[in-house]
Design a protein that fits this description.
Length: about 475
């Protein structure tokens, strides 16, 4: 019995201390983001980035569009990209073994013809089959390849790309016409920039017509997801890069320096959080070579994704948790040399505490706190105080994050949605969040399972990139 009492006391004490500590860090981040939001809005009114992005300054950009499943949004996504306010770009659409239906639709719509295209071997990918082009659409290149997965398709796009910068956009993702200008401007301002990213948001069902905004209906499921998304990406900047991966299959909308990614041998094929992992790998590589490394986030650059693109319900939390856990543990050596790895050490330490240790102890506390009360280890007053503090801080964090986001992105949290934020914040904290924590806690241990042996037939597909005739 004494062993059980010691276990309950230890778990409950660690959870309360860690929860308050992380809550304090998040509150501090919120204050910092509020101050930054005011300054950035004033700066944006004065600074017209378009004036600095003349013909001689525009950085060529490759936009990689991986199609990994039958997707009806492919054509509309390509059309919208062609209308982007950016002249020096190429669009590389990669059909990752999705069959003839996608081929027929894309090739037929743009009247593409097969061409010969020499490809420099840089990153190993599944075998390429055909490349298509039409002079009528000089920015567009269509690639057909053997199925290898999302990250493999992106790597194939990197091999083919001719530009020093690239970004990844999946079908269905919506971005502003000036988004590339805003992101590329960061490379122009500071040559040490290796990644310039925006923020991922779940579509809020709002339609903008001139100066009026029409807010569509939002149910319980979407409401709590919107609040959770804002909480994890608006004010919590130490966790933002990992969090955006939860809501989009391709992670956050980001502009990468291609050479920095190639130096890291491209995106990991089997990673569930490939972009977050790439951010860590780039920083580790650059800092280990004693080079300056700048990763910046433009909070007013939003990539809007439909709610159903986030994955299979609660399963996405399991996949994401495993990916974050693996990525974080694979970079723990940064904690041993914090002065060498700088911001990388801080991010790894925070994600280790916030996304792994706290999640495990919070899940355990759902059992240990009631047990401690039943066994008279804590009084009813102490129990209610802890519960009140737990839910109160969670709701307060949701509301304050929404407030920060509203300061920077007025068009996202509409007046109609703003009036419901408190309700959705309460609903997210009471029930939904606890289910998510339990799933994540179990998945944390599942992240260390041995990987399945790849079948010989699948291994044969992973051949060096070849020239396509």
């Amino acid at each position: 019995m004494s062993i059980l009492n010691s276990f309950l006391s230890t778990v409950n004490a660690v959870f309360v201390i860690l929860f308050i500590f992380i809550a304090a860090i998040k509150f501090l981040q919120t204050l910092i983001e509020m101050l930054k939001a005011g300054r950035e809005r004033q700066k944006n009114r004065i600074l017209d980035f378009k004036a600095y992005m003349g013909e001689e300054n525009m950085i060529p950009i490759s936009i990689i569009v991986p199609i990994c499943e039958e997707d009806r949004d492919a054509i509309s996504t390509i059309d919208s990209l062609m209308e982007m306010n950016y002249d020096h770009m190429e669009i590389i659409v990669v059909n990752d073994g999705c069959g003839e239906a996608v081929n027929t639709r894309v090739i037929g719509n743009y009247e593409l013809g097969e061409i010969e295209h020499a490809i420099k071997r840089t990153i190993k990918t599944a075998k390429l089959r055909h490349i298509y082009y039409n002079k009528k659409y000089p920015k567009l290149l269509y690639v057909e390849k053997v199925k290898g997965g999302l990250n493999d398709a992106v790597n194939a796009g990197i091999n083919i790309s001719q530009c020093p910068m690239f970004t990844v956009i999946t079908p269905g993702m919506e971005i502003d016409k000036d988004a590339l200008l805003k992101l590329s401007f960061e490379f122009f301002k500071d040559s040490s920039t290796v990644v310039s990213s925006g923020i991922t948001r779940i579509d809020n069902n709002a339609e903008h017509e001139n100066t009026s905004v029409k807010q569509g209906s939002i149910g319980y499921s979407k409401g709590v997801k919107l609040v959770e998304c804002i909480n994890m990406t608006a004010a919590d900047f130490l966790n933002r890069e990992a969090s955006c991966e939860l809501y989009s299959k391709s992670g956050m909308f980001a502009l990468f320096q291609k050479q920095a990614v190639m130096d890291c041998n491209g995106f990991s094929i089997d990673s569930q959080t490939s972009q977050y992992e790439m951010f860590l790998r780039i920083q580790e590589d650059m800092y280990s070579r004693e080079k300056d490394c700048r990763i910046v986030t433009q909070r007013d650059v939003l990539s809007m994704i439909p709610e159903d693109s986030t994955g299979d319900g609660f399963k996405r939390y399991s996949k994401w948790q495993k990916g974050v856990t693996r990525a974080t543990f694979s970079h723990l050596k940064a904690l041993r040399s914090p002065f060498k790895y700088k911001s990388l050490s801080l991010k790894v330490a925070y994600n280790l505490l916030n996304n792994i240790i706290l999640v495990i102890f919070e899940a355990l506390s759902y059992i240990t706190l009631p047990l401690a009360l039943i066994m008279n280890q804590i009084s009813i007053e102490t129990f209610l105080l802890i519960i009140g503090l737990y839910f109160g801080l969670r709701i307060l964090n949701n509301i304050s994050a929404a407030r920060v986001d509203q300061q920077m992105n007025e068009c996202y949290i509409t007046p109609s949605l703003s009036s419901k934020i408190i309700l959705y914040s309460i609903l997210e904290a009471l029930g939904y969040h606890q289910i998510v924590v339990l799933i994540r806690a179990v998945s944390t241990f599942g992240a260390f399972e041995k990987k399945k042996v790849v079948e010989k037939e699948e291994e044969k597909k992973r051949l060096p990139v070849r020239k396509v005739n």
